[in-house]
Amino acid sequence: MKKLSLKAKCLCGNVSFKTKGYHRDVQNCHCVQCIKTHGNYAAYTKVEENDLKFLAKKSLRWFKSSKRAKRGFCSNCGASIFFKVLGTKQICISAGIFNKPTKLKTSIDIFTKGKSDYYKLNNNLPKFSKYPKI
Ligand SMILES: [Zn+2]
Predict the structure, then answer these.
(1) Distance 113 CA to ligand 1 centre (A)
(2) Quick check: pTM over 0.85?
């Protein structure tokens, strides 16, 4: 967890926002849903939804990807931006969407059973087969 103020935008810029407050360390998610959505494993930080302020969101659309979650993406450029567990006050944000330097750091690999076979996991990161309670 790091206290940061960051700016973010999708590839076309039609979705842009600022975040402040505590940002969770980035977690690489290897679940099948993330791989399908991102075309690769996902790298998400997480903030309190109240700490996110939209500057533009006219092309932001949501896809209900399971009973418990939805994913936010840009309908213009196709960027995968958000993962949101329904009924919670936090929102996960794709780390690559932030302007550099992010000062974020990647801490763990999760849902490693879902990973595809074309890449290897980084051996330096702790690995969890499910969502860890940390
Ligand atoms: Zn876009």
Answers:
(1) 31
(2) yes
